[in-house]
Amino acid sequence: MSREFADADLRGARFVRSDLSGAVLRSVLVGGMEIESPWLFEGEPLRVNGVDVLPLVDAELNRRFPGRAERQATDPAGLRSAWAALERTWAATLDRVAAMPPGTVDVSVGGEWSFAQTLRHLVMATDTWLRGAVLEIEHPYHPIGQPHAEYETDGYDLAVFSTETPSYAEVLEARADRVAMVRDYLAKVTPEELTVLRRNPWNPEYPETTLACLHIIMDEEWEHHRYAVRDLDAISA
């Protein structure tokens, strides 16, 4: 249903998990407006005053985060290089957090996940797309994993995840194990294996190739790293 807001005051409004695709804004004031979308580069162009700004945003993010541009590599050697870049990036961020005041890892900024919760979610992402989809492990999830909001609303089994809040040391251990798991898999993967179709855990009727599953892991890593750095900057400020 098409809706029109004319002369509406939406200053300070916050839209979370909302569908604004195809929205048209005319003669609007947008100073200070922020858009965060992990799917920004997967859909239609985003035009501001007639200019598709997506290529500009993508290039700027690649500049800010060296190694990000490698995330869509299509061969084993490229994927290994892309993962090595991610490991270096996260290692530097972990060092930064270690030097910050105690308790920083549990601080939530604007209702978003804390740093520890972000790492826990990446454990779940690896379990979903590597252990579950690619390796076809029957029970892929580590109980320390942090499910996203859609996981609960879509009716998935939350019993696989612990209701206890783990220590940061436990989070780091689980995270390091999953990072090493991806590294070890990429060390042996062949071009042929990258083309194998895998069961999509969220949409079984739409299978994904092994390569696509690995790309999803890479995207999850870079997007959540960007969120984490954004919030660490806010905490530092």
Q: TL;DR of this structure?
A:
With 237 residues, this protein is mainly alpha-helical. The protein has a domain at 73-236: Up-down Bundle (Four Helix Bundle (Hemerythrin (Met), subunit A)), CATH 1.20.120.450.
Q: How do the strands of the widest beta sheet line up side by side?
A: 1-2
Listing every helix as H and every strand as E from the N terminus to the C terminus, the arrangement reads EEHHHHHHEEH
Beta-strand percentage range: under 5%
The residue-averaged pLDDT reads 90
Helix content: 40-55%
- Counted by DSSP, the helix tally is 7
CATH architecture of the domain at 73-236: Up-down Bundle
Distance between the termini: 42 Å
Q: Care to count the β-strands?
A: 4
The CATH homology group name of the domain at 73-236: dinb family like domain
Annotated CATH topology of the domain at 73-236:
Four Helix Bundle (Hemerythrin (Met), subunit A)
Computed over alpha carbons, the radius of gyration is 19 Å
Low-confidence stretches: none
Please give the CATH class of the domain at 73-236: Mainly Alpha
Q: Based on Cα principal axes, name the global outline.
A: globular
Largest sheet: 2 strands, antiparallel
